[in-house]
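Closing statement on the zinc ion sub-project.
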Amino acid sequence: MRSDICELCGSSKDLSVYELVSGDEEKSAVVCATCKGMIENPDTLEPNHFRCLSDSMWSEQIGVQALSYRILKRIDEDWARSLVDMMYLEDSVLEWAEDSKGSDIVHKDSNGTTLNEGDTVTLIKDLDVKGAGFTAKRGTAVRNIRLTDNPEQIEGKVNGVQIVLLTKFLKKA
Ligand SMILES: [Zn+2]
């Protein structure tokens, strides 16, 4: 392990490597069981335990910077917000420092039903597909959809063409 103490709070108890990006050692941090438990179960997070982040956020390890940032963002207290304001993360780090995709983005169809990756949906109205020169007819089934970062859009194949569809025009099949 890279460190023999928790890179967040300095404890040496029950250390493990917490990967922010699976399989990428650079994007990880060595954490103790206490820190890890609170990271994995945000309901148990004790803000005062993470006062230590005011030091660890200046670590030279980008994994520690990013994890500090991620935790601070979850703490709804003034001191935590002001630490976030003081932090400077490279854009390339911010991309994966934020909580992973899908954690708070929820895609819903026209009925408010949650859509998941791989679902089949049907169109609830005729849609002109710009650029492709056809109209996707109401009732067309779109199989194996992909979710995007935008909660109002999904991607799917219609007539063999991969297109972006607005969730408000879809119904889960
Ligand atoms: Zn710790």
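The pocket of zinc ion is lined by residues 6, 8-9, 11, 31-32, 34-35 (CB under 6 Å). With this model delivered, the sub-project is considered complete and its resources will be redirected to Aim 3.
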